[in-house]
Amino acid sequence: RAAFRGTSKGLLHQIGSTLLKGEVHNGFLIDETLPVDLAGNQSWFWADPDGKMIVTVSRIFSEYLFQLVVEKGHFEVRLPRLEDSDSLQDLVVQFGSNSLCIRRVVNRKGRLVVLTDIVNLFGQVTFSSSHLSSKFPGQNLHVSTFENNLVYWPTDQGIITEDISKNTFQEIPQTAKIADSSDKLVHLGGGKHFLVVRERQINYLKL
Quick check: 81 and 119 in contact, CB under 8 A? Predict the structure, then answer.
């Protein structure tokens, strides 16, 4: 689990049930206590590159409590509940300019299902869907990136865009030599600006 997470502005770190946001001022790390309560050793957190959007999740018995911290305030995120037979296998949080995408991978009666939720900056779920993991261009959700209701996937056929609300996939022409399934895509913001991260190389890409 994440006990520390860096941003371009400083450091997020957890002490007990408290989440602190530290920034360097005059050579000293100054901590600010964020308005969330975490559940000891059963919590995780993510942040966008600038630390302006922070998502936390705490496991309380069999329930998962999601919270969002933004400049506008602190919100509880009420995702659709898991079914009684669901077993959480993976969790991915991806940040866009004006929303975020939370994907939970669950084992549902022996099949892996991806639960997708789009959340606005007030913590409200604006769209939800569930699909078998086998329908996606790749099985590693962590290498994709999200922006404006689209997920960008690196594949051996190039970059594929997933329109979450329409449940459609489309190859981006002339990207087969730019990215493959072993890469990771990082959205830089400000439109269609990306990094293609490889083991020994990082390339800039504008689509």
Answer: no
The predicted-structure confidence for 141-171, as pLDDT tens digits, reads as follows 999 999 989 999 999 999 999 999 999 999 9
| pTM of this structure | 0.92
From 62, 43, 53, select the one nearest 21 (Cα to Cα). Answer: 53
Q: What whole-number distance in Å separates Cα of residue 53 and Cα of residue 47?
A: 6
Other C-beta atoms lying within 10 Å of the C-beta of residue 113: 18
**Greatest alpha-carbon span in the chain:** 55
Length of the chain: 207
Which pair of structure tokens corresponds to residue 141? 């959700």
Kindly state the tokens that stand for 98.
């004006």
Q: Are 69 and 35 spatial neighbours (Cβ–Cβ below 8 Å)?
A: yes
Read off the tokens for 153: 């996937």
pLDDT digits (tens, 9 = 90+) for 107-140: 999 999 999 999 999 999 999 999 999 999 999 9
Cα-based angle 2, 164, 77 (whole degrees, multiple of 5): 45
Contact criterion met (CB below 8 Å) for 148 and 120: no
Place of tokens 């502005």: 9
